[in-house]
């Protein structure tokens, strides 16, 4: 008789997280939620109200700023519905809001102030700091045609950063206007639809000013630039005169002196911008709007140290039509290479007067900004904001199970704690007491409740304060001494269990 064939080992899946995605544990989730609560408080103080839109939209509704709809998987995650319509995971929170407002236009108050928080998805090559799924927290005003709305957004951005723990002087809200940029483009001969490709190259070059400096941007505006790795980026091919005009524009910096004539300063400052846009009416209109925003912010007490005009702000999305802004952190940090750098932008936005109007016959003005939740969270860790580095919430009180035949009695104990509003759990594993104690420690339990047969016969439980016990253990030299002392452990009647557990929680967490 032949031997039975050896059973093949069942194939097991390798646990792998797709590139560009991250898992988060309970501590980070709790800290993030505390930060989100502060952002929400700030937005609601300005009269904004919550709204939520789905993760999935019709691809065509996401807007012309995305790649060609004939290739809907470029930049977005897309699939076809059973009716062959293309659907996509949302790329940001603004385009879905435009669809929502257009769909409920008559029922919403105008101007309509709303905020939204949620994940967005980018089908892009992942890399350091570039994720395929990340969270944004947006606030928008729809139906307000004047730049007073943009000024409010800038002021709220400043207030929000301070509310979450970024000190004044460690951030600045920088403001530009796409109309000014359009005016500069017209002045150098890049106006019109046929120059859209070169305009995009120019905008991307300006956006790299902080990282590459004027010399690097000059190459990108001209013949192109080879980076440290040897990769070559094709330039915009502009003339020397056009390059110098753009560099002169992006080099303007506002630095009003304390106690000086603010009105005269802004007149001189924006006068320099006017020379760069030349005769472009669009550019001059953009400068006037910026001037108004600065005056409104200063009137409300938001000076140059908090909100300032900055020509280097570009913003990459195509739907912006007017003022654009970025909230930038200015304090230095050390990167992975040991270099001291500035943290950079954690929020941005602008005016997008054409986005809602795609769904309606009339134009609908709108403006808003988006907080990069993960990036802001990282910044708060750097500055050790108590919002993200504060004391963690206590773990659950753990009821140990020493006699599995008495599980019902243990269930009654944990039920008493839960009915009293005390977070608690019954140990549901199969290990002995020593392993259960280790489990409670890993769960961050402030204390455990123990009931063996002797305690049950007496109508008692033992409560072991794990936090106090750990402190006492440091002062006890031998195991025998430990067993004799049994630090931070006491026996109490079952009907006093809830009160005594509350005493443990109050001792370590207050309240």
UniProtKB/TrEMBL annotation:
Location comes to: Cytoplasm
Q: Which SUPFAM superfamilies does the entry link to?
A: Class II aaRS ABD-related, Class II aaRS and biotin synthetases
- Which interval of the chain is the signal sequence? none
CDD domains in UniProt: HisRS-like_core, HisRS_anticodon
Give GO MF terms, alphabetically: ATP binding; histidine-tRNA ligase activity
**Transmembrane residue ranges:** none
Q: Where does L-histidine bind?
A: 92-94, 122, 136, 140, 315, 319-320
Q: How does it assemble?
A: Homodimer.
Q: What is this protein called?
A: Histidine--tRNA ligase
Q: Specify the species.
A: Methylobacterium aquaticum
Gene it is expressed from: hisS
């Amino acid at each position: 008789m032949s031997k039975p064939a050896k059973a093949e080992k069942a194939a097991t899946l390798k646990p792998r997280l797709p590139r560009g995605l991250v898992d988060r544990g309970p501590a980070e989730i709790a800290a993030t939620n505390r930060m989100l609560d502060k952002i929400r408080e700030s937005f609601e103080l300005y009269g904004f109200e919550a709204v939520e839109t789905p993760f999935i939209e019709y691809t065509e509704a996401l807007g012309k700023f995305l790649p060609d709809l004939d290739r809907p998987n470029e930049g977005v995650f897309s699939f076809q519905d059973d009716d062959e319509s293309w659907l996509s995971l949302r790329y940001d929170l603004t385009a879905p809001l435009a669809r929502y407002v257009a769909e409920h236009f008559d029922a919403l108050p105008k101007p309509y102030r709303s905020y939204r928080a949620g994940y967005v998805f980018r089908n892009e090559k992942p890399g350091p700091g570039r994720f395929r799924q990340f969270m944004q927290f947006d606030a928008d005003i729809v139906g307000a045609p004047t730049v007073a709305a943009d000024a409010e957004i800038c002021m709220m951005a400043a207030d929000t950063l301070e509310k979450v723990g970024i000190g004044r002087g460690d951030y600045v809200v920088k403001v530009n206007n796409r109309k000014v940029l359009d005016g500069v483009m017209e002045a150098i001969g890049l106006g019109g639809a046929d120059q859209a490709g070169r305009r995009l190259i120019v905008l991307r070059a300006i956006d790299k000013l902080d990282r590459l400096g004027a010399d690097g941007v000059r190459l990108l505006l001209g013949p192109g630039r080879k980076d440290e790795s040897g990769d070559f980026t094709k330039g915009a091919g502009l003339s020397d005169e056009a390059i110098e005009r753009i560099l002169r524009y992006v080099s303007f910096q506002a630095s009003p002196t304390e106690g000086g004539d603010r009105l005269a300063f802004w007149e001189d400052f924006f006068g320099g911008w006017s020379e760069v846009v030349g005769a472009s009416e669009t550019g001059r209109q953009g400068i006037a709007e910026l001037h108004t925003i600065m005056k409104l912010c200063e009137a409300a007490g938001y000076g140059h140290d908090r909100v300032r005009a900055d020509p280097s702000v570009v913003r990459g999305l195509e739907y912006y039509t007017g003022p654009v802004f970025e909230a930038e952190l200015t304090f230095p940090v050390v990167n992975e290479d040991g270099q001291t750098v500035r943290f950079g932008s954690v929020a941005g936005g602008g005016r997008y007067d054409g986005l809602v109007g795609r769904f309606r016959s009339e134009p609908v003005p709108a403006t808003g900004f988006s907080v990069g939740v993960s990036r802001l969270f990282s910044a708060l860790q750097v500055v050790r904001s108590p919002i993200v580095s504060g004391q963690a919430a206590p773990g659950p009180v753990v009821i140990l199970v020493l006699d599995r035949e008495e599980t019902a009695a243990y269930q009654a104990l944990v039920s008493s704690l839960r009915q009293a509003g005390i977070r608690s759990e019954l140990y549901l594993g199969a290990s002995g007491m020593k392993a259960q104690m280790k489990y409670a420690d890993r769960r961050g339990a402030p204390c455990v409740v123990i009931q063996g047969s002797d305690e049950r016969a007496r109508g008692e439980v033992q409560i072991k304060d794990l936090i106090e016990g750990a402190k006492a253990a440091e002062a006890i030299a031998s195991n025998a001494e430990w067993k004799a002392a049994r630090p931070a452990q006491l026996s109490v009647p079952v009907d006093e269990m809830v009160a005594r557990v509350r005493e443990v929680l109050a001792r370590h967490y207050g309240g």
